[in-house]
Amino acid sequence: MFKDKDNRHVVSIRDFSQEDLLGFVDITERIKGNQADYATELENKKMARLFYSASTRTFETHGEAMRRLGGEADLGFRSTEGTSAKKGESLASTLRMYERYGADVIVLRHPRDGSARYATDIVNKAWVINGGDGNNEHPTQNLMDIFTINEKKGKLKGLNIVFFGDLRYGRTTRLVYPMSLFEGNSFIFLSHPAVSMPDHVKDYLKGVGARFEECYDPSKFPDIIHEADIAYGSRNQEERWAREGTTDGDLMRKEVRGRIVLTKGIINWAKPKENFIVMHPLPKDMKAPCITDDVEETPYCWYDEQAENGVYARMGILYSQFNDWWLDG
Ligand code: CP
Question: Which of 15, 140, 147, 232 is 20–30 Å from 316 (CA)?
Fold first, then answer.
């Protein structure tokens, strides 16, 4: 199903064709509607979760998805605290060890861009899921977002999507890659210039002929929301900005924090389309949120549904991968 170099890992959302994405949506819908039918699918299969940086949702939902499919998710760690990474052990050594302990699938979150791709060169039998690698990608978040959009909108094409907030360091906004595969979608990137969508993403979009615009003016937010089908917020990824106490870091925090913020007032003023939704991968940073809490009082807030779909989407991914790979292999 998924077409990475070994036809088994989930490393980049760009490895997925439109056919792969529609197949994924279809199987995930079937699983969500009939969970009991899939309760023993992954019996005797083991997941290791190796999380070198913080997570709540990605860590929990992969484990929960594995358990609901009858597999085990006991191996691994959700923080390097107390592990031999603190003694200087390499990622390669750790991956080899968990594979020898019986991991059939390894979910890796790591602060370094490209770490998941690197991991695929280390493992022999296990397959790798990228649970977020630095500023680069978070493909399973993109898959759950696609599932959520299709569930709510009944389609993946002809949508006007505004991405706002930290688009440079917010890897979940790479949702534009798969959404650009569907006809008639258009994108607006609303951000401070210091955290604008990276050039390499815009170059990709130009290459595939996708329609997009950039905007740095917060006063345009109501007009943009008025025309949008989906508003997708991205938290300021301050943990990946220059450190506080440095000139660059302090200037960035002063300039960027609080600059692009979606509020209930903006939404009400904008008079959005009836089926408009606000998405966010979560967590929101309560120190400097890109969406205020009062948006949750509106009928447009959709990020709790989105987060719940993380379990079903990861069940869809695991089921598809194990079936395709184990049958073919
Ligand atoms: N959306 C997401 O990746 O959340 P966590 O960082 O909590 O895993």
Answer: 232
Per the listing, tokens 């079936």 go with 323
| Same structural domain, 22 and 58 | yes
Q: The domain that contains 89 carries what CATH number?
A: 3.40.50.1370
Q: Which atom of ligand 1 is nearest to the CA of 59?
A: 8
The pLDDT, as a whole number, for residue 3 is: 53
Evaluate: CB of 239 within 6 angstroms of ligand 1: no
pTM above threshold 0.85 = yes
Question: Is the Cβ atom of 61 under 6 angstroms away from ligand 1?
Answer: no
Dist CA 60 CA 92 (whole Å): 24
The gap from C-alpha 255 to its chain's centroid, in whole angstroms, comes to: 26
Tokens matching residue 121: 């060169």
Q: Is residue 8 part of a domain?
A: no
Is residue 115 within 6 Å of ligand 1 at its C-beta? no
What share of residues in the chain are helix, strand, coil (percent, to 5)? Answer: 45, 15, 35
97 token code pair: 């060890």
Is 280 labeled as catalytic in the residue annotation?
no
Question: How many distinct structural domains can be found in the chain?
Answer: 2
The Cβ of residue 205 has, within 10 Å, a number of other Cβ atoms equal to 17
Residue 93 lies in a domain: yes
Instruction: Tell me the residue length of the chain.
Output: 329
Residue 326: its pLDDT value, please?
40
CA separation for the pair 323, 16 (Å, rounded): 17
Contact 320, 27 (CB under 8 A): yes
Q: What is the DSSP letter of 10?
A: B
Distance of CA 205 to the CA centre of its chain: 18
Mean pLDDT per 10-residue segment, the chain (329 residues): 66 94 95 98 97 98 98 98 97 98 98 96 95 97 98 98 97 98 98 97 98 98 98 94 87 92 98 97 93 97 98 96 60
The answer to the question of residue 1 being in a domain is no
Rg (CA), the chain: 20
Opening angle at CA 240, ends 80 and 95, nearest 5: 35
Q: Residue 106 is part of which domain span?
A: 13-137+310-328
